[in-house]
TrEMBL record:
UniProt-listed Gene3D superfamilies: Gnk2 domain, C-X8-C-X2-C motif (3.30.430.20), Phosphorylase Kinase, domain 1 (3.30.200.20), Transferase(Phosphotransferase) domain 1 (1.10.510.10)
Record-listed ATP binding positions: K357
Entries under InterPro entries matching the protein: CR_Ser/Thr_kinase, GNK2, GNK2_sf, Kinase-like_dom_sf, Prot_kinase_dom, Protein_kinase_ATP_BS, Ser/Thr_kinase_AS
Protein name from the UniProt record: Cysteine-rich receptor-like protein kinase 2
Annotated TM spans: 273-294
Pfam family, one: Stress-antifung
Amino acid sequence: MPNALAVVVIIALAVIDVGVARPPISNTNTLLRFVCGTNDAMSPATFSRNLNSTFSQLRSQLSNTGVYYAQTQNFENEDAVYGVAQCRNYLSSTQCLACFDVAVSTIEPACGSANGANVILDNCFLRFENYDGFYKDPQGSSDVDVPAICGNESTSEPITAFNQSVEKLLSDIRDATPRTSDFYIASTRQVGSASNATVYAIAQCVENASNTICKNCLNTAYNSLSGCLPADEGRAINVACFMRYSEFPFFQNNQTINLIPFLAKGSSSKCGMIIGVSSGAGLVLLLLALLLWFRHWSKSKAVGKDASELQGARCYSYQDLKVATNNFSEEYLIGKGGFGEVFKAVVDGGNIVAVKKLKQLYHHVGFRAKKEFENEVNLISNIRHRNLILQLGWCIDGPELLLVLEYMPQGSLDKFLWGEKKGTLNWKQRSEIIFGIARGLVHLHGEFYVKIIHRDIKSSNILLDSDFQPKIADFGLARFLPEDQTHVSTRFAGTMGYTAPEYATRGHLSEKVDTYSFGIVSLEVISGRSCSDVNDSGPRTEYLLDHAWELYEKGIPIKLIDEAIDPNEYQEEGVKKIIEIALMCTQSPASLRPTMSEVYIMLSSEPELEQRQLSRPTYIDVDRRIHIDGSIDDKMRLRETRRRRLNGRPSTVDNVVQELDCWFWAAGDILFNAVKMVVGKRSRMPALALVVIVLAVMEVAVAQPISNTTINTNKPIRSYCDSNDAMSLATFFSNLNSTFSQLRSQLSNTGVYYAEAQNLENGDAVYGVAQCRNYLSSTQCLACFDVAVSALEPACGSANGANVFLDNCFLRWVFLSLRFHLPLR
């Protein structure tokens, strides 16, 4: 019966398909523009060899499924050739290569030994030069016009309706294209409300262009094409962008991109069309969707099977790489990362590459593991994007596993933020770095057929090319880790200021882990400070994230910007928007964070963001005090640290009371152990009840009245840390972070002054209460709560209980719910 139903559906769709059939798709490689450079190469023979190598490498990159942009360079005897090629995204790989071959055959006989040329066709674009400046500024100062090529015939549709539809469609794709990660949009629009005619349009910028260049170029293209109307088709062409419309289809209907997410205010005409759809048309769309889903499902197996067989990386000889790095000598060492050392090498007669020697955990692996490593690298090498490091090859025939990577002459981003080149990046470079990192993550998370979560986005993993364009390194390397050596444990060796709390404490992995890290790196780029740097200038010690949130909540986020940046280089509203997006990425829980696609759209939109209330994270950053797999020695050091902090304070009345309080709780520990020995393990709850009652009486005896000071003074009056540490630190920190988050969420509601929460996981529980004075506003209450959390963080570490009294609020957490039933004085 299901098969019979499927046959009926397919027959119905076939009838519908015939009924709505359009003219055949036109994929002609029409030549639109062709320019040869005016200067000849100094050494034609050398230049010709470099040019042929460049063409070969560009073609090799474009031969990979889903790759529409290629960029490469070749040096020999200082005669360099830099090349880029780009196909329209509606083409198949075969069609893309066919267009590329036409472009090459057009250039080669006509330009001779010219040291530069570009050719633009309907379906692709090819350019080479003897300098790399056009990577950053493809237009330069002499090619800013975007001339239009108009069709010879007028539209056969009503002119007014046709003109309005075309102008609205071109306006929408002009605005949306710079907000996409690959600078490409294809869309259609119905001509009028009573017509069955459709207009087709695309817009594309060359991927090495900046957002500003893309916007300006497409705006000029839009103005040029407006002059073509009412012609039935038109093209606007430039080395930086391409825009085309036609009343004849030149791509498939299922190759369009939804514009609404990329338009700041949506599309009213689109909404009107959706509302006006009849029920019959809705049924047609439903049936078409079923067919498309079926086709996608049936093809997915083939894609999965062939993906690892795409043309990928090259297998290098260990001996060749050993010679190229002078036996991996120190003079060739250019960096050390979390996965191993990186060396500079010259291979294949002059190509500069980076060779990563993976750490000991990869050494001396068996044949099967090496084969899996080879397959994984070959798979990941097919990921090609302008903001991702290109993996060129691998080596498995030596004692160590090696990766051969694209070489980045400027090194890592951290050197330019707080290293030896601190303060040399201007605001334009910094903003483009933030945009580029976002673009790269969007590609990893959703545009490659295998979703890849980086897990370790940080400034030292962001490399810069000669034009200071960012490229993300080390993506996919976590896939190579042995099963007994997880990414979490290997990255917990030091400060993890970039790591999302849910991943650090519970190992919960999602793409929002990269979103969090992106937010931290963005704050570093803006401020020029490392996330682990401590700011001691204020009333309390603050890390970068704490400092950024405090400035944001005070309404002065602009003070975060690096003082080395010239104020004339930026607009304050634009900087504030990026800071707000970065903080949005660091919210907890992870569900509050945007996806990287949403981040990129927000970055590309106008400075004004939709007003939303951000939720400041209140978790404890465990890496600042103890590792998840901390030893008994770690716990003893924590106890000693707390003891010194208490003993080192001035001997005021409050501190005397606090010390008495600590002694009472220490006595409680002894009392509990004694009672447990008498009554046995089975009677633990009565024993705990007895201990808690005694301790409560002791607390009442030493409790001090809270002074009545001014409303805005969040002065700590008393704080206490339990003498015992949690048994399972990972579980405890997870519960504690969740408890803080829930307490703060409750207190954020107007008129709420008391909050109570509990979290249980794996038999470990954390119970918390918080209370504000009723004369406070919600903002003042939350401010006091944040001070309370920050007061307990550095002192109490992994203690399984603590409390702090302030003038305006109170916070306490314990591992026993029984204490909640006792009055707190």
